[in-house]
Structures are given as C-alpha cells and as structure tokens.
TrEMBL record:
It comes from Vireo altiloquus (Black-whiskered vireo). The gene is Cd8b. This is CD8B protein. Residues 12-110 form the Ig-like domain. It is found in: Membrane. The chain crosses the membrane at residues 156-179. The keyword Transferase does not apply. Gene3D superfamilies: Immunoglobulins. GO terms for biological process: adaptive immune response; regulation of immune response. It is a single-pass type I membrane protein. Its main location: membrane. SUPFAM superfamilies: Immunoglobulin (SSF48726). GO terms for molecular function: coreceptor activity; MHC class I protein binding. The keyword Transmembrane helix applies.
Amino acid sequence: GFYANLLLTQTPEHILTQTNNKTEIFCELKKEHTGVYWYRWSQERQHFEFLVFSNTLGKATYGTKVSQDKFRVHEARSQSSFSLHISHLHPSDNGTYYCSVSQSSQLLLGSGTRLNVVDALPLPLKTTQTPVSKKPLQRITKSKAASRKGPCSPLVWIPLAVGVLLLLLGLVPTAHRLYRLRRRLWLRIHRQ
C-alpha cells in the first residue's frame, strides 16, 4: 500500500528557479527507516523515474542514466532529515519530486515538490521594491488535485504505478528460481 502520511514531511511545495542554478528539497522523517528514495514525475513525458536511494550509512544507489554530478543526497546527523541537492538545472529537470521510505512492506510518499526551471524569471509587475515572500507561488490542495477532471488524478495513480513497479521487481528473483528449478527437472528427465 501507499500512504501520503504524517511520518514524513517534504518541503517546499513549489520551486521556481533559473537555468544553471541549483536547488534543494528537504525530507523530514519521524520514524526509523533504512534509507530514503527519491523519485521524479515528469508531466511532459508522462514518466515516473527512480533517481536515487540513500541508505542510513550514506551510501547512494542511482537510477539508470541518473547523473551523480547532478543529484546528491545529504543527510543530517540525526538521520531523520535528508535533502536532495539538484545542480546544473535545466528545463528538462521540471517535474514533481517525491521523497519516499519503505516501512513494513509499504511505500510512504512525501507530498511532492514541484520544480519549474525557466530561462528567465518573470519580472514583477510593480516598479517599487517589494519583499520576496517565502511562500510557494502556487498551492494545490489534495481536494483540488482530487477534483481534477478524469477518474484518476496523479495523486492516485502515481503511487499505484510505483507499487506495481516494486511488485514486479520483487517477482524477478522468484521467476528466476522457478526457471532454474524447471531447467533442473528438464535435465533430470532427459538424462534418464
């Protein structure tokens, strides 16, 4: 099962930044864990991608074609706070980033951080200097996201897709054992 939950808090909700900058996404955990997974959902490519897993010893395992120069996971000494550093930003990095932990055969997902990388930041409308607010530019509440047209919002099917992927990956060793057992039986029958 998948749960957006109170056991992990992900911040910020939204990041708007320029090409070639770097950014950081935070994930705070309130329970024991073996490490943190980071995923990215690309709306443009309709693709959910595994980026990196960092265990409690600080060892990182990267997804296929994921640059170690671009993505780094940093961990606080308490082992309850992780951050994903993304450098050399480019519009192709746009997407929603999720931190995640595995807890008693369940995958717990953070609330997601939407990253928008643009070549030039929009200019403010007023010419007078106004203080920059630290609040996210756009908030999408769960009720708004769930009320989008169509039977399945991304809040429902993204965690579902990750679950199916993890289930399939879990079946690979079993399928391999069955293949070896079948081959052994076949060889035994044909030797007689």
